[in-house]
Write a structure and sequence with these properties.
With 429 residues, the protein is α/β, with parallel strands linked by helices. It has 3 domains: 162 residues, 3-Layer(aba) Sandwich (Adenylosuccinate Synthetase, Chain A, domain 1), CATH 3.40.440; 94 residues, Adenylosuccinate Synthetase, subunit A, domain 2; 158 residues, Adenylosuccinate Synthetase, subunit A, domain 3 (Adenylosuccinate Synthetase, Chain A, domain 3, Alpha-Beta Complex). 32% of the residues lie in helices and 20% in strands. The protein has 12 helices and 20 strands. The strands form 5 sheets. The protein has a 10-stranded mixed sheet, with helices on both faces. The protein is globular, with a radius of gyration of 22 Å. One of its GO terms (biological process) is 'de novo' AMP biosynthetic process. It comes from Micromonospora inositola. This is Adenylosuccinate synthetase.
């Protein structure tokens, strides 16, 4: 039975949490396969309760699905325990959580280095959240990482930490003039986390293989989005993992042949947090409209998001790269009241038209959007539940997105609520 990948088609913040939660009651497992607590999902339940989830898969709000944090995630144990406690206090059952023993830990030296390096970069900074995600992934690749399973063996934990801090403390103290990390204090802190996290640590790969063998449905949830992918995004202004569909296999430990559907989520416009190229970015009243009406502030950081018109070049790239079978377009209601709604259909770079993403970073930085203007609509669409209930111009807008991306638009979000959707094609049979 199917493994379904759910991912972002832009630069993140597209509303994946809402879709994951929407599907959560109809799947058996929800798996987070990449990223750390630099990402965030906001989920609003039917009774108006708002949940900001950072490490926990969005399926945590499902009453029955098992929730898995896969080996591809980097985990800050303090943040995870705070999230577990916060959900428990609000009556959410977190006993269904399991965490891969191979997931890497974010340590104090990762957070310290992330913050100080970003400051030293000055105007060349990437725009990280300073939560240690990049340095944790760096140590993973350098084979110096500390994994969740290491919390269960104090001797191994100490040995690995001492080895890591030989180098990291030199950097912090001698290069950046910061206080060195104390080994004993860190060991004591993390062994405290171990005591509480031990019941959740498991061999999650086998759990997922067995679930697929039983014919159960596994939903794989990516953090961030396609254009922040380490290999396929706007490098170096990217995250430190692979949130694309291929990363789901690596980050959860399931075979590619198990994936039967790839659902991509895109806003009806475009946003981005942090530095990096953004061809359709707006600096006028339209940009302020998208910011304020769309409430474009980061779930994790609270930072204002940069806003711009829908970029069909990016959306088509994401669709082809990920093998997208279904596109979910969120926040269509934010465009209500605009007389014209442009869509970027191509780029102009040095007098040449590009219908696909240019090869080089330099070209993408200098891309000028070529727009096609569509007529807007004034009607309130938040109560629409069928395509026929949408204004004609809103339907034309969605149809044009479908044409330009080459992917069917299966669901249209018409409001922030869990039920505020127009379902054109069911996401699950």
């Amino acid at each position: 039975m199917p493994a379904i990948v759910l991912l972002g088609a832009q630069w993140g913040d597209e509303g994946k949490g809402k879709v994951t939660d929407l599907l959560g009651e109809r799947v058996d497992y929800v798996v987070r396969y990449s990223g750390g607590n630099n990402a965030g999902h906001t989920v609003i339940t039917p009774d108006g309760q708002k949940y900001a989830l950072h490490l926990m898969p969005s399926g945590a709000l499902s009453p029955s699905a098992m929730i898995i944090i896969g080996n591809g995630v980097v985990v800050d144990p303090k943040v995870l325990l705070e999230e577990i406690d916060g959900l428990s206090q609000r009556g959410v059952d977190v006993s269904r959580l399991r965490i891969s023993g191979d997931a890497h830990l974010i340590m104090p030296h990762h957070r310290a280095l992330d913050r100080v390096v970003e400051r030293y970069l000055g105007s060349a900074r990437i725009g990280t959240t300073g939560r240690g995600i990049g340095p944790a992934y760096g140590d993973k690749v350098a084979r110096m990482g500390i994994r969740l399973q290491d919390l269960l063996d104090p001797g191994i934990l100490r040995k690995k930490l001492e080895l890591a801090l030989r180098e990291k403390n030199q950097l912090l103290f001698k290069v950046y003039n910061r206080k060195a990390i104390d080994v004993d204090a860190t060991i004591e802190e993390y062994l405290g986390y171990a005591e509480r996290l031990k019941p959740y640590i498991a061999e999650t790969r086998v759990m997922l293989w067995d679930a697929l063998d039983r014919g159960e449905t596994v939903l794989l949830e990516g953090a961030q989005a396609t254009m922040l992918d380490m290999d396929h995004g706007t490098y170096p202004f990217v995250t430190s993992s692979n949130p694309t569909a291929g990363g789901a296999c690596v980050g959860a430990g399931i075979p590619p042949t198990a994936i039967t559907r790839v659902i991509a989520v895109s806003k009806a416009y475009t946003t981005r947090v942090g530095a990096g190229p953004f061809p359709t970015e707006l600096f006028d009243d339209n940009g302020q409209h998208l910011l304020k009406v769309g409430r474009e502030y980061g779930t994790t950081t609270g930072r204002e998001r940069r806003t711009g018109w829908f970029d069909a070049v990016v959306a088509r790239y994401a669709s082809r790269l990920n093998g997208v079978t279904d596109l979910v377009v969120t926040k269509l209601d934010v465009l209500t009241g605009l007389p014209k709604v442009p869509i970027c259909v191509a780029y102009e770079i040095n007098g040449e038209r590009f219908d696909d993403m240019p090869m080089s970073q330099t070209d993408f930085h200098h891309a000028t959007p070529i727009y096609e203007e569509l007529d807007g609509w004034w009607e309130d669409i938040t109560k629409a539940r069928t395509e026929e209930e949408l204004p004609e111009n809103a339907r034309r807008y969605i149809a044009r997105i479908e044409e330009l991306t080459g992917t069917r638009v299966s669901v249209v979000g018409v409001g922030p609520g869990r039920e505020e959707n127009v379902v054109r094609h069911p996401l699950l049979p």
